[in-house]
Amino acid sequence: MWLSDFTLVLPDRIVSGGSILIADGKIADIKDHAVAGGIRGDGKHLFPGFIDMHGDMIELELEPRVHVDFPMDVALGHLDVRLAATGVTTAYAAVSFSRGARSGERRSFVHTCNIIRELKQANQAMRVDHKIHARFDITFTEAIDALGDLLADGQVDLVSVMDHTPGQGQYRNLERHIELRAAHHGISLEDARAMVHAKMDAATDENEVLTNLQRVAALCREHNIALASHDDDTVEKSNLIADLGAIISEFPVTMEAAETVVTRGLMTAMGAPNAMRGQSYSGNLSARDAHAAGLLHILAADYHPAAVLPAIRALAETDPNGLAGATRLASANPARALGLLDRGEIAIGKRADLFIVDAQDRVLETFLQGETVHANGTMSATLNRQPSVA
Length: 390
Description:
The protein is an alpha/beta fold and 390 residues long. The protein contains 15 helices and 17 strands. The protein folds into two domains: 2-47 and 346-385, Urease, subunit C, domain 1; 50-337, Metal-dependent hydrolases (TIM Barrel, Alpha-Beta Barrel), CATH 3.20.20.140.
């Protein structure tokens, strides 16, 4: 099957009026001109499918309200449709091991283990390729063995470590954190302050936290699972995580932390909503500032997959390689970081994970290994399908 007369977003350049041949689920040929037959794009953009290494959406799909549980097939099925409709073809579902349950008991480790196993089993029937990103709170000592069991069983594809104790990391700006807690829970600032300080008083001993971090890193090495850090905010913390073998620093909180991890050879990942809006909702490092400094390598959906394409458009305005360079942040770069060498680029031999957008950046069609997994309702009016010719 030929896709002809598209604006191809290649790894290093944009090709206007180009064509690609899909055969056996892979990209078999690329031309810099239109070809006869096939699917005519009339100049519409053809992107490589996005690879989202961190999507927080599944937990809210499973429990959209406290104590309101949805079955996995319904929750994942709905998320699957959303992802395909936003150009995401490989999605790492971020599932958390944390005492601080955000919604009911969803983040207790027994529930978390069950969710991960259900996700793995359900993936075969989904539109996009779902993988598991285990977010592990390093204060959660009693859950380490459960994580180890999942790694040994091949249930997890990526592990990140985090510490959400107020006063450091993502919540280093304590007053800002208190304000956000008050708004989130609909309580007074005084009550939010008491809540935050109670959590600080109950914080896990620092030596125990370090031991937990070392144990989790050792498990990742033992089972050959990529390790990422989360919310690095100091030079010391950045060096520590690099020493332990992390390959990605997610959402670095400060420019100094980002500079340190990059110097140590790690890639950085930041949220697409941050890049799209131009600022972090929690007042931390702006993805645009990190990008301008050459310190941003990967864009993640974070909590909103529809933000990825607008974020790429925003960053393309200042990227040295324009749209091609900005697109790599959500395709080729996460593929390289996570060892997904069969995808992430419009290149001969790669998987035909692709999506088409119109002039308004509406996703018209998404392909996974050359098969349509999403089609916009306007498809028949915007694309001229003809029989392919040899």
